[in-house]
Amino acid sequence: SGEREENETERGLRVSDKGFLNTAVITSEITYIDGEAGVLRYRGYPIEQLATQSNFLETAYLLIYGALPSSSQFASFEYEVTRHSILHVDTESLFRAFRYDAHPMAMMTSAFAALGSYYSEANPSLQGQTLYTKGDPQSIANMDKQIFRLIGKATTLAAMAYRVRQGRPFVQPPTGMGYTESFLYQMDHLTEENYKPSPVLAKALDILFLLHADHELNASCTTVLQTGSSLVDPYSAIATGCASLYGPLHGGANEAVIRMLISIGSPENVPAFVEAVKRREKVLSGFGHRVYKTSDPRSFIVRQIADEVFKVTGKDELLETAMLLHKIAMNDEYFIKRKLAPNVDFWSGLIYRAMGFPLDFFPVLFAVPRVVGWLAHWRQMMLQSGGVKIWRPRQIYVGSGKRDYVPINSRE
Ligand code: ACO
């Protein structure tokens, strides 16, 4: 049905693929997922090895540049990211302009976009379209600078979004602390003596950051590439990724899991909730994944971190409800048949809650590390041979055929 567009140029095979279930839009060397086997690798390294032996910032380097750094490469990367974590002082006015109860993801999205206004050298429309060219050291250095800035400033922006809601003054990024530690310091969260973040909790959050750093072409990464394909500056592209991540079917799921557990209330209500899910009256947040058709490998690591964190913070009162929900769902025919298992968000929300983060801050804890994945994919696309092709999918038109305009007074 529908009308064929006039002057249409046929180019290859056109398929209808709602939600991109089967469409590959790029070739990539960054992240490998085998959804049937539950395998996740960053640049070939199994996620389990990275989670136990690497740290977030080293993994960030790996994702972006394709190889584990030498000591001097890591030192230089850490120095550049830390050096660029400081924000222009005017950014404070931006944060103070938000309503007292603004959602932190709305603040983050706006702030990433606003950052672009400070760095004109990152804006191709001001500089000419060949801004980032493979093999041109000056252009690569320019690109790297934007990457350092975005990773460094992500924690500073997130800490500001956190503090502005409490009416507290902003804190400058400290020196001499690791990436995640510095983030906790700026929020003044999970601190022990002398405002130093708890090493156990900082390490737990660092591993969570590492696990969230990339997941190939999820909705937000695809959004970054879609936006980036118009050759816009990386701040604008990252802002759109942040907006996409905000949704409850994506990065908002960790927040949705806790709201779901609170609504269930206690373990005795779990069976009735599961039945409501099966009648499609409710969604089991934190279960299911577009790619994994078995358990998300990150969910096992997150479950272990939860135990470490609870030793320090005490158990979350929702844990028993979550464990029973997990047990019932994993043994229920409805979920087995549909290959629904926990994704990374099922347990991570409980950790964030035990750590005392406000519910609506959970997606920010996903967005901060995911900036790395977005940038790795954006860099890969910008430097691919043959240049960037604008992403412009096609549709199948099913609307009205040609009809003639009727003046307003003549309409029925
Ligand atoms: N609860 C109940 N049923 C579900 C769930 C769920 N969480 N997820 C999928 N299903 C059902 C669907 O109703 C569908 O059933 P049907 O075939 O009888 O119609 C079947 O399982 C297949 O699901 P789809 O919706 O086709 O799977 P899709 O790949 O489109 O969606 C998604 C994946 C969005 C993650 C989905 O599983 C979901 O909504 N999960 C809950 C939200 C969530 O946890 N999101 C986080 C994703 S991970 C991340 O962003 C880090």
From TrEMBL:
<comment type="similarity">
    <text>Belongs to the citrate synthase family.</text>
</comment>
<feature type="active site">
    <location>
        <position position="289"/>
    </location>
</feature>
<feature type="active site">
    <location>
        <position position="345"/>
    </location>
</feature>
<keyword id="KW-0816">Tricarboxylic acid cycle</keyword>
<comment type="pathway">
    <text>Carbohydrate metabolism.</text>
</comment>
<dbReference type="GO" id="GO:0006099">
    <property type="term" value="P:tricarboxylic acid cycle"/>
</dbReference>
<protein>
    <recommendedName>
        <fullName>Citrate synthase</fullName>
    </recommendedName>
</protein>
<dbReference type="GO" id="GO:0046912">
    <property type="term" value="F:acyltransferase activity, acyl groups converted into alkyl on transfer"/>
</dbReference>
<dbReference type="GO" id="GO:0032787">
    <property type="term" value="P:monocarboxylic acid metabolic process"/>
</dbReference>
<keyword id="KW-0808">Transferase</keyword>
